[in-house]
Write a structure and sequence with these properties.
heterodimer, A: alpha/beta, Rossmann fold, six-stranded mixed β-sheet, four-stranded mixed β-sheet, 7 helices, B: mainly alpha, MetI-like fold
């Protein structure tokens, strides 16, 4: 279980963390630090340990054998790949689930993700993109110091995804949580993050700041250079 | 669009314009009152058979005889005198069974001690046919009202328990994770996640229970009862009154259908969020 980080120097500190499923080592002595308000993207092939790391940070890995120390802030929000809304609660009740008396904050969060007026809707009445926006509002309304996002746009269509990128970047600028975004989309990582990590067989093999000006454009040659570097690290032939 | 090559190779085919027709694989659309059609055909055949004398009135009375007998039974108070005790038995047995079955399901579904104590005995009880318990219940409770109500309740308890318990433990693991990352308290988790998630199973249990309650009623009223619609039709059997039997069956049909319709309406209201998935 993750414990509360006592210091202000790092939002997240992962020291020598190992996680195993049976004999299979998924996280192999992993070390990682996230500064407060830092936006980090985590790339990796399937089975590289991305989700295991995220679940460890979220405290959802009580069934997994392992060792090491994890320090996370007190307020952590998780955005899953599916919106994970409860179909029997109206949109606003989903946003403020577990937050008694949070109705007005919930309304404000819904307005921020562009869903003002949909408070009384059922999740089943919303599109996939709208459901994911409700999930973002649910994450934000808790004013997280750390936002863990596990491929939150993976199930969305390309156009919706572009809009969600803009929204996430906006929300990040306003609320400034530390963000760990797990993705397998290299472009998404470069476009959104301040720093990109590549995980391979339970170890971090690339740890690079993204020093491109915002907003980042696919037309920028430096974008392509960065993309080639990351694809190389992911074992994808770039040419 | 029809191309030239197509017309040449298939000259017999009529020229087709507009988009190609697709084969509908889903269920064809139904028409209004579709379900009543089959019933009307059945009643028509029955009427025709009786009118032509093809049906022996001692085996199957004519529809108009049944209606006249029904009116007589209502007029002289016989039907009412039998219906009230029947309704009372079903209502009390059903209500008690629903309460007990649901309580047991919640106890077994949400607590480890409950699972250990309750699930096994219910499984054993389920393996014993309900009506096989009747002799034991008569021995314990006599042949009065208690035995009748207890047997109805026992049937209902099983159905309520099985459906509600299954729904309670089949909770979506992703929703459990969500509750954990949101830091929900155990009470809030049960209230906001477990109970609403189990409600569809609870309603299925209610509808099955209503059926079993009416079924059990007929059987218990065949055992030394002095009144009840079940008693009325068993007595009619002794006197060879097929019209009275049919009136009794119609009463059971009407009440069974009404109970189910009421429960379905209640389900639609409580589970209104589900309609969004269907539309």
């Amino acid at each position: 279980m993750a414990t509360h980080a006592g210091e202000l120097t790092a939002a997240v500190r992962v020291s020598d963390v190992e996680r195993r499923f049976g004999d299979h080592v998924v996280l192999d002595g992993l070390n990682l630090e996230l500064a407060p308000g830092e936006f980090v993207a985590l790339l990796g092939k399937s089975g590289s340990g991305k989700s295991t790391l995220l679940r460890a940070l979220a405290g959802l890995d009580y069934d997994t054998a392992g060792s090491g120390e994890i320090l996370v802030p007190e307020r952590v929000s998780v955005a899953f790949q599916d919106s994970r809304l409860l179909p029997w609660l109206r949109v606003l009740d989903n946003v403020v689930l577990g937050l008694p008396g949070g109705a007005s904050a919930g309304r404000a969060a819904l307005a921020e993700v562009g869903l003002a007026g949909r408070e009384r809707a059922w999740p089943g009445e919303l599109s996939g993109g709208e459901q994911q926006r409700v999930a973002l509002a649910r994450s934000l309304v808790r004013e997280p110091e750390l936002l863990l996002a596990d491929e939150p746009f993976g199930a969305l269509d390309a156009l919706t995804r572009i809009r969600m990128h803009g929204l996430l970047r906006d929300l990040y600028r306003r609320h400034r949580p530390a963000v760990l975004l797990v993705t397998h989309d290299v472009d998404e990582a470069i476009e959104l993050a301040d720093r990109v990590l590549v995980l391979d067989r339970g170890r971090i093999v690339v740890d690079r700041p993204v020093e491109l000006p915002q907003p980042r454009s696919l037309r920028d040659p430096a974008f392509h250079e960065f993309r080639d570097l990351l694809r190389g690290a992911l074992g994808v032939d770039t040419r | 669009m029809t191309s030239l090559a197509e017309t040449r190779t298939a000259p017999a085919a009529p020229p087709r314009t507009g988009p190609p027709r697709l084969r509908r694989l889903g269920r064809p659309r139904t028409f209004p009152f579709a379900r009543l059609t089959g019933i009307a055909v059945l009643l028509g055949t029955w009427s025709l058979g009786s009118a032509l004398g093809a049906l022996d009135p001692r085996k199957l009375s004519a529809p108009w005889t049944v209606i006249a007998t029904g009116a007589d039974l209502i007029g002289d108070g016989t039907l009412f005198a039998n219906l009230v005790p029947s309704l009372y038995r079903v209502a009390v047995g059903f209500a008690a069974g629903v309460l007990i079955g649901t309580a047991l399901a919640v106890f077994a579904g949400l607590t480890r001690i409950g699972e250990a104590l309750v699930d096994g005995p219910i499984l054993v009880k389920r393996s014993v046919p309900l009506l096989g318990l009747a002799p034991l219940m008569i021995l314990w409770l006599g042949i009065g009202e208690e035995f009748k109500i207890v047997l109805i309740a026992l049937g209902v308890v099983s159905y309520m328990y099985i459906q509600t318990h299954a729904a309670l433990i089949a909770i979506d693991q992703r929703h459990v994770e969500l509750a954990e990352v949101l830091g929900l308290s155990r009470a809030a988790f049960v209230r906001k996640v477990v109970i609403p998630g189990a409600l569809p199973g609870f309603f299925l249990g209610l509808r099955l229970s209503a059926t079993i309650a009416w079924l059990t009623l007929v059987v218990v009223e065949s055992v030394n009862a002095i009144d009840g619609v079940g008693k009325m039709i068993f007595r009619a059997q002794d006197y060879g009154q097929s019209d009275v039997i049919l009136v009794g069956l119609a009463v059971f049909g009407i009440f069974g259908f009404t109970t189910d319709a009421l429960l379905r309406a209640l389900e639609r209201r409580v589970l209104s969020w589900r309609r969004t998935l269907a539309s």
